[in-house]
Write a structure and sequence with these properties.
Negative regulator of class I heat shock genes (grpE-dnaK-dnaJ and groELS operons). Prevents heat-shock induction of these operons. By secondary structure, this protein is an alpha+beta fold. It has three domains: 3-86, Winged helix-like DNA-binding domain superfamily/Winged helix DNA-binding domain (Arc Repressor Mutant, subunit A, Orthogonal Bundle), CATH 1.10.10.10; 95-138 and 285-351, GAF domain (Beta-Lactamase); 142-221 and 259-283, Enolase-like, domain 1 (2-Layer Sandwich). It has helices at 3-10, 13-29, 35-40, 48-60, 77-86, 95-105, 112-127, 179-192, 198-225, 253-283, 332-351, and strands at residues 64-65, 74-75, 130-134, 142-151, 154-161, 166-171, 229-232, 240-243, 289-292, 304-312, 318-327. A four-stranded antiparallel β-sheet has the order 3-11-10-9. Strands 4-5-6 form a three-stranded antiparallel β-sheet. The protein has a two-stranded antiparallel sheet with strand order 1-2. Strand 7 and strand 8 (240-243) form a beta hairpin. The longest helix is centred in the C-terminal third of the chain and has 31 residues, at 253-283. The protein is globular.
Length: 354
């Protein structure tokens, strides 16, 4: 359970209602919401002073803030994140919104570039925000891969395809990665990549991981049976070889070599797992994602939000994405269904070309 989920769970009904009404009032009008306006249509009979006390508690929790010295409050970035994750009600797009999108995209879909251009126009027009459209991913075999570290939690993968096409993709690398480890990952992948798509490369690495695990299991069993080590393997990702005292006084070179060999295999297994995770992060995408304020590292616009959803081809592979960029004061309950509906529609139209 993350921090905002726990905060929401710990709040009583009154605090939850005050918080929800402040956020909804701010999203609707963009102005701070005061205690007096909340008392007028609150679900229970409470005084403005009681509401003010609740708002102060919510401010202390980091969920509300005061833009200036006044009784009014607005949601903080953390407050908006909690509202979006735990309180927002996401339904279907309204009939008018759906009709506008359908009308814009209803033309000939054989021209993908034209289709995506219309998608951008449709999203901008319906949502009154800036649109984001990522074109379909290239499916040709890869010729070369390069990872570029942009910051501690942001990296770029450069894919050079065999037909000369070059594609850059942003992703969040696994924790603890360094420019050096990224170079090592790229070198390893480039030795395997010839003639393979990303999907084929992932399968190749998965097979190597399975082979490495089998080799470790066989060697470990021999060491355990000889009494040199203890095998501790609760889950697939936490197996350990606990070396016993006698192993520190190995009598033969063969035993020492076996122990060193298994250490080397463990290192190799971890490296391949990291690389497999790199590929998965560079390739993956799931559902509608909402990035609020400074979470939106793609553009470094701390005062903006990005609502984005991938679209898939007929084989259920993520091939691109559509989204809307706007102020943090977006009407998320309306925008999320529109982006999701548009992404599904684009995926269907591109799939139906074949």
């Amino acid at each position: 359970m993350n921090e905002t989920s726990k905060l929401l769970q710990d709040m009583n009904d009154r605090s939850r209602e005050v918080f929800r009404r402040v956020v909804e009032g701010y999203l609707a009008k963009g102005d701070p919401v005061g205690s007096r306006s909340l008392t007028r249509d609150f679900s229970e009979k409470v005084s403005a002073a009681t509401i003010r006390n609740v708002m102060q508690d919510l401010e202390y929790m980091g969920l509300l803030g005061s833009p200036h010295v006044s009784a009014g409050r607005i949601p903080t970035q953390m407050g908006l994140r909690m509202f979006v994750d735990g309180m927002i009600e996401i339904g279907d797009p309204s009939e008018p919104d759906r009709e506008k999108i359908d009308a814009t995209l209803g033309a000939d879909a054989s021209d993908v570039t034209g289709l995506l251009d219309r998608v951008g126009s449709a999203l901008s027009g319906v949502t009154h925000g800036a649109s984001l459209v990522l074109t379909p991913k290239h499916e040709a075999p890869i010729k070369h891969i390069e990872f570029v570290s942009l910051s501690q939690d942001r990296a770029l993968v450069v894919l050079v395809f065999s037909d000369g096409h070059v594609e850059n993709r942003l992703f969040t690398p696994p924790p603890g990665q360094t420019p050096s480890s990224m170079r090592e990952a790229a070198n390893f992948l480039n030795a395997l990549v010839e003639g393979k798509t990303i999907g084929e490369l992932q399968r190749s690495i998965a097979q190597q991981i399975r082979q490495r695990r089998q080799e470790i299991d066989r060697l470990a069993q021999e060491l355990v049976e000889s009494g040199l080590a203890l095998w501790d393997s609760d889950t697939e990702n936490t197996e350990r070889l606990i070396v016993r005292g006698r192993a520190n006084l190995l009598e033969s070179e063969a035993e020492a070599e076996d122990l060193e060999r298994i250490r080397s295999l463990f290192d190799d297994l971890e490296r391949k797992r990291d690389i497999a995770e790199f590929l998965e992060l560079a390739e993956g995408g799931d559902g509608v994602r909402i990035f609020i304020g400074s979470e939106n590292k793609l553009f470094s616009l701390s005062g903006s939000s990005l609502v984005v959803s991938p679209y898939m081809n007929a084989d259920r592979k993520v091939i691109g994405a559509v989204g809307v960029i706007g102020p943090t004061r977006l009407n998320y309950g309306r925008i999320v269904p529109i982006v999701n509906y548009t992404a599904q529609l684009v995926g269907k139209m591109i799939s139906n070309q074949k």
